[in-house]
Protein 1
Amino acid sequence: MSSSPQPQQQKHQLWRELAVPGVMLIAIALFVGDALHLSYEALVFPAVLIVVVLVALVWGLAVYLKGDASAAEPAEGDDEEGGPIVAATPWLLVLLPAALVFSFDYLGVLTALVLLVFAGQVIFSLRSPLRSLLIAIAVVAPTYAVFKYVLYARFPAGILGIG
Amino acid sequence: MDALIHMQQGFINSLQFQALLMMILGTLIGTFAGIIPGLSSGMSVALFLPLTFTMTPLHGIIFLISIYVSVGYGGALTAILLNTPGSPQNAVTTLDGFELTKQGRAAEALGYSISSSVYGGVISYVAMLLSIGFVATVALKFGPPEMFLVAISGVTVLGAVGTASVSKTIASGVFGLLVGTIGIVPTGEWRATYGEPYLAEGLPIIPVLIGMFVFSELMLMSFREYVIDSTITVKRSLRDIFRGFSLPRWTWPAFARSTGLGVIVGLLPAAGGTAASFASYSLARKVSKRSEEYGKGSVEGVIASESANNACSGGDIMTTLVLGVPGSATTGILLGALTMHGLQAGPNFVAQQQTLVYGIIWAAIISQVFMVAAAVFAAYSLSGTLSVPTRILVPILVLFSVVGAYASRNAPFDVYLMLVCGAVGYLMKRTGYSPAAVVMGVILSPIADNELIRMFQLYGGDWYLAFVTRPIAASILALLVATLAWSAFSRFSARRQRAIGAENGATS
């Protein structure tokens, strides 16, 4: 009975270990998909790089499977925070701006950014909605002004017409 | 004579009101960012890069360099007072700095840290001021094979000098090189863009930088309730801090060695301040007559670490400006800033924009005055509870990241790219890969790619022979191979030592 969590944990660790190689392989497949038509001059450099990446990934996995911890010392920041890699909060931090940027044209940048900072605080913990909203407005207003009037960024106005 | 005139003009330009204002602003931001653990120099410079869009190249670079350098000053304060390095380059300072604090010598340690930083920094910038013209003249002799090798070395050196897994660092760096080749090739072909016009000029560097350095870190921070939550109870006086400004005579050799080593490490592409401070501390400990004090509150230890990481910035900036190859991931962002202003760093840049280059160096020297003032003020006044809740800081930095990525081209595409880079950077940090190596790869890739294609055009089918028939290229290649061999050997012997140690432990 007591031995069952260990293989489960090992399986979990293996999936973790495969996450970045998986992302890299998808990116390489996409790259190759739109690079096969290229001339020799344009193809040779990326082709060599793809081979080196694949070799390095296989090497890294071989080291991991061999369990050679000394050769696979963690990188700076490796797992330093300790939470599960698929925890909700960090991924909500990605999804929230993605959704709000999608709505830039409808909501307008100013409204979307206030919502972003407000919702960002809610993700962590909503202590006082009014205070969170005031913080959002207090931070967004000067940031928006600097980017619009000093850096001349062009922002969509959206339905409120403030852009 | 010509160089002297440009030097003089650069000095005058660096004393303009706006230039001084940028130094002060950059210093305040950098010192503040340095105090907050998790806000590294790369992250801070990437975050504030969009603010330089409308500045002149001189003012923009001064602003960013001031942030970059002053993060080290701020980071040392929390390393000494709280045993928490504000940025990775100050990690070694905690070993002796915090021990000194425990012994009631915090003010002295802060003084040594600030003074060795400023002395190391000024020496490295003066060396840069005097030698950059000559180095650029040598670099002008570099052709496509040499530039290709220098660009590639940026990624390979990261694998060799880092403490992380070699395979993962190389995979990260080469992956960065690969995605950096996306865009229109010098042959006129569109490579891996899927016809997307936003990718025509290659992967835009600002969203990549903000995603990999800033957003990935914010995702990591989200697990904590507070970014920092500590109480400082140590009493300090200005007099004690300033007493640390006169380095004891017996620490001079350690200071000189560390400053020299810092400059040399800075000159290596991709090595950076963290490698400099670790290497310097380790060397100082090995050769010191008081090696037994290291780790127990050694003044020499604090001086070795802090002088090296600040001296490194001079060499780092010189490599970046002269070769167009970043000395570290942070100075890679400076390259991005120059590119944004239509300038391409490299030997021609140094030769043709001498006034600007000397202006940047003078500003780096002058800004040390503001950095000392800001660091002394922070060292003296940091007290009570230092508490930064994640629920406030992270949403604000997410806002800056989104707006910064968007504003570079007014394109939502860039925000999505930044978010993708952030998510990938987060996964990489959690599993031991190196986002900094990816960034280095993305920055260096266009240089390597263009130089290789020029080699095909110049040397035809025998292009690869140019690496061994040209003396400078052959020397760089030999140096690169030697670095990798040395790294492999030292890792192998360290592993063997550990195995022998474990065996001995088991038998006894």
Note: Strands of chain B lie at 183-184, 190-191, 226-232, 384-389.
Protein 2
Amino acid sequence: MKVEQRPTESRAKDSLSDKATLLDLYREMLLIRRFEEKTAEMYQAAKIGGFCHLNIGEEATIVGSISALRKQDYVYSTYREHGHALAKGIEPNAVMAELFGKETGTSHGRGGSMHLFSQEHRFYGGYAIVGQALPIACGTGYAIKYKGTDEVVMSIFGDGATNIGGFHEALNVAKLWHLPMVFVCVNNLYGMGTAVNRASAVTEIWKKACAYDMTGERVDGMDVLAVRRATDQLVAQARQRHEPSLLECVTYRYRGHSMSDPDTYRGKDEIKEWQGRDSILSLGEHIKRQKLANDDELQKVDEAVTSEVEAAVRFAEESPEPKSSELYRDVYAEGAA
Amino acid sequence: MPVLMMRDALNQALREEMKRDESVFLLGEDIGLYDGSFKVTRGLMKEFGEKRVLDTPIAEEIIVGTAIGAAMAGLRPVAEMMTVNFIMVAMDQVVNAAAHIRYMFGGGTNVPLVIRTPGGGGHQLGAQHSHSHENWFAHVPGLKVVARGTPADAKGMLKSAIRDNNPVMFIENEGTYAVKGEVPEGEHLLPLDKNEVKRAGDDITICAHSRMLVVAQEAAAELEKEGISAEIVDMRALRPLDMAPVIESVKKTSRLITVEEGWRSYGVGAEIASRVYEEAFDYLDAPVARIGAAEVPAPYNKALEKIAFPGKADVIVTARALLGKN
């Protein structure tokens, strides 16, 4: 599928050409890829339970958008969020340990694959009800405005969420109340097994921003640099002018909806076609063409992230289970203001 | 001690907490410029401005969602739902999000918010404006649920609810906003997990909360004339449910009536009865009697509505029957 980019004003030459930045993006995308491949393996080995939704194929969208944020900015995500958590800076050890249900996980084994969280990294959670987190993200946006600080909230969700009431309620108040937010739609063409054109009257999701007089933009979600450039601009307008926006990143998940998806609703050719446009390979080629690194250096990056992922599995394996005596811990918070 | 109407006691609690803590803000439909559907928030936008008294669109999901996200980021929102019937639109945010966030994120965050919302019938408002659903929320771990019956309790419990670090469902009742009572001035704080005996008696125990507390008190006054001494336990703390005063009372009276404005099935009375059977079965001289609404969607017709909701006469007749004094 060819992605029509919405024409946008030409941008000044950006910083996305130096070696360190490009290798950082490459490294982060490859970390997510290797992490998710290992996650699939661990799921099949029954080390990970429940549902498990992988980000493989979506790395450019994830890294391109989240890398545009500062550490103190907030991210709200979905149940397909392992990569989002890693991109926001959470250690692979803590993410893998959560998938294993261990006490050392991001949510101390109480959340699992769909409910990663880190206060420290301002990763404000994976939510497993489609569209649920958008209204919540608006509340954090309101808190920023209330306190007069300069953070930004990025609310990430799938194409399926844009047909739900909460999406529309959220976009409405984000614009109405001038909240410092960027809504990022990961359009991977399917809401579970239902194609966008079978679920949404408007298949170009970015156009839904028009209803709220909001900036809407569509980018090739397989091109990390395109995603990053677009996000940079939208984050800046959110931070500086409290002007919210909707960014649609058109991408593809190579694997099924979850690990238990037999993937019968789409053709093998379609999957192959998208794999042929793989964002990590593309960025690698770009880096080599620019003569910023050679195959050996890229191979070293791969080896480094692979061993980081292996270390995460060891950490998760060796971590303690939550204590049964602590089943009731954290149902309620103690104390009062 | 000053005598205030329920709505003014609530208003006083909101004003005091907003003055005390900059992070407290209000949001809801028509709570600001319009002064609130039931005038609980009267004058607050004028006093505190539009940032701290936020008028929202008529969109319940965004109201509760906004409150949750603001609470996670360090504020203390108090959301008003115009009636508890409307909160159904936002149940996902209340149950799947507010109640579960702290636990499912391993204690990594708190959700200190209050949702104030009135239930209750008796105003010919029909099937979509008249019900009481506190039992729905009291079913859910992670929520605290209170339902006050007097102006003093309203003030003391709302102030504590705002300071609490958990999501608190603060259930009000349309039929009680004009109820008057003495209200302590200034710092008056009541625990969210303590029920109390509101009227001492020896022959029979009546458990009631919110508007049914008023109904129970009226019934008890009539029963007194017949020589029946009723003890009333105010069940203002529904989750966590404080059973201690009920168990103690039943050990004395050996007879129990529960009164609630909602439907009996799977209701507050069902929970209380079950706990009494578990903890004080041997003290009972009769089965627990439950009084609740007729199991129909609230009818509009005045006469039908009157018989659909429990009233003083139901309590009196049930008390006589339990004591064998028909």
Note: Residues 7-12 of chain A have pLDDT under 50 and may be disordered.
